[in-house]
Design brief:
Layout: H1 3-12, H2 14-27, H3 30-46
Length: 48
């Protein structure tokens, strides 16, 4: 099995679905959205 196939299989499993749902809940929180924006800003400024 290739790595992509294993990841895909995991994401369809019950445990994978739990992790996906948890990730979506965490991303919906305003404080986490702000952290991601700050991280993206830092990354984009490094590339210049």
């Amino acid at each position: 099995m290739s790595l992509m196939q294993r990841i895909s299989t995991f994401l369809r499993s019950p445990r994978g679905q739990q992790l996906v749902d948890r990730g979506r809940r965490e991303l919906a929180k305003p404080e986490n959205q702000q952290r991601l924006k700050q991280f993206a800003t830092r990354l984009s400024s490094r590339r210049r």
